[in-house]
Amino acid sequence: MVYFTAEELNKFVYLRAAFCETLRLFPPVPVDFRSSIGPDVLPSGDHIGPNTRVLISFYSMGRSEEIWGEDCMEFKPERWISEMGEFVHKPGSLYLPFGVGQRACLGKELSLKMMNTVAINVLRHFEVKVVEKQKITKTNKVLALTTQHGLKVRIKKRLRN
Question: What is the pTM of this model?
């Protein structure tokens, strides 16, 4: 197992971008709702009354051409990297897998660093290949975005020199 400092993990820009791009297209929680305390005006200009539930589709937002551009359906980690090779943070109101504002996930940075550490160590010790021609079916669950039978992969231990 290889361990990294927070500063060292910040250097794995492409890996972090790949995780963020994955969460953009496949948010773990595809929909959620918020309730208004009083009358309010939505960013769309629509007026809502007090105690109104507003459904938010993170899944749809991640595929919105208006937000992400014409290539919104493509997996492109490069959209998270500046021309200088630095990670680009997106506004919390556009990228919601970790929430935003008062309800934002306190463990966002820690979880991204842990995902990087696990991915680096797995890829360092194993060769991982997705099984071709498998049928991937999404479940009908509303609370979590999962596949019905998972994603089958072949794992082979890397030989050390």
Answer: 0.83
- Binding-site annotation, residues: 105
Going by the annotation, the residues of the binding site for heme are 105
Q: Are 88 and 76 in contact (CB under 8 A)?
A: no
pLDDT tens-place string over residues 5-45: 988 998 999 999 999 999 999 888 888 888 999 999 988 89
- The values of phi and psi at residue 22, to 5°, are -60, -45
Which residue, 150, 149, 144, is CA-closest to 58? 144
CA angle 55, 58, 93 (to 5 degrees): 90
The sign of the dihedral angle between the CA atoms of 106, 109, 113, 118 is positive
Q: Which residue has the tokens 């060292």?
A: 8
So what CATH class is 6-157?
mainly alpha
Are the C-beta atoms of 79 and 95 separated by less than 8 Å? no
CA angle 112, 68, 29 (to 5 degrees): 50
* Paired tokens of 59: 């899944």
- Strand partners for 55: 33
pLDDT of 101 reads 81
